[in-house]
Every structure is written in C-alpha cells, then in structure tokens.
Amino acid sequence: MSRDWHKDMRMCEKASEGPWHFTDTEDVWMLFGGFNGHMQLIKAPKNSSAYAEYWPESDDAVFISETRTALPYWLQQFATEKERADKAEAEAEKWRIEAFQKYPTPDAYEAVCAALLKHRSRADQAEAELLQLRASIAWIKTMFESDWTYEPGIGEVVDEIINVLEHGTGVLEDEKTEKS
Fold it and tell me: Does 60 fall in a domain?
C-alpha cells in the first residue's frame, strides 16, 4: 500500500482544527474539535440507539475515515526511516571513533604537523648542504683541470676524491695495499 504525503497533509489541513478529544460516558461518547476543541463533532449514543447527533463536516468525516489507514502507514514509514537514520548514525559514530584512533585529539594533529615541519626543515637544510657540496666538487674539478694537471700524482688523488664525492666510489690508498 502506498499513500501520497501531500494529499494526506491537505486532508489534515481541511479537517476542523484541533485539538480533538473525546469523552466517554455510560450512555454516549462525544468527539470534540474545532477552535480550542470545544465544537462537538459527534455525539453517538451507546444504548442501542440508531442515530447520532452533530455529524461532522464532510472534511472531518474524510479525516476520521482516512486516518484509520493513514496513521498506521505513516507510523510504519517513520519506523523505517528511523531505523535507517539510526543505522546511519551508528555508521557515523563508527567513523568518528576510527578517526579519533588515527588522530585522537587536535593536539595530536598539531604534533604531527610540527614533526612534519621539523623534518621538512631538516630536509631543506640537507638539500642546501648537498648543493654546497656539489658546488665544491665543481670547483675542485675546475681547479684540477687548470692548475693541478701538471703536478705528478696529484691528478690521481684529486680524481679519486672527486669519484668518492660524486659517486661514493673509489679506493683509498690503505685499501689498495691491503688487497695486494
């Protein structure tokens, strides 16, 4: 079964305004509604009488009869939606707990950022030192090629130093004698 929410809402708006209430005595029950709930909509006798007094307006009669099916329908819709919302809230809570396990507090986030900044600063410093070292190697190469080329034995030593600085390779004099 399906209902149209807009149609049901219009039906509610057309009915006599509320609050509605009923009284129940030994002889009759009465339904009241309208402004401040003082207008008698129905007076129905209980003692085998075949008539009722003050039949409701047609919009009130529609409201009364339709409410029998509309109310259970919309209550079921509410229950279904509430169940879905509860599941969504539970999932959101699970995600919140998971996030707090990874980033327990705003202070933890700040600590991670501070550590990252510290390491970034150290990396920048190491990069600057590496650039200085490369510049020094370039200077050594320039000097080696122009001034030390004619000195016996110095060329090999400078060449060995450059290999060690540039590539981390080269054999020191002590290692040469140990191998032989």
Answer: no
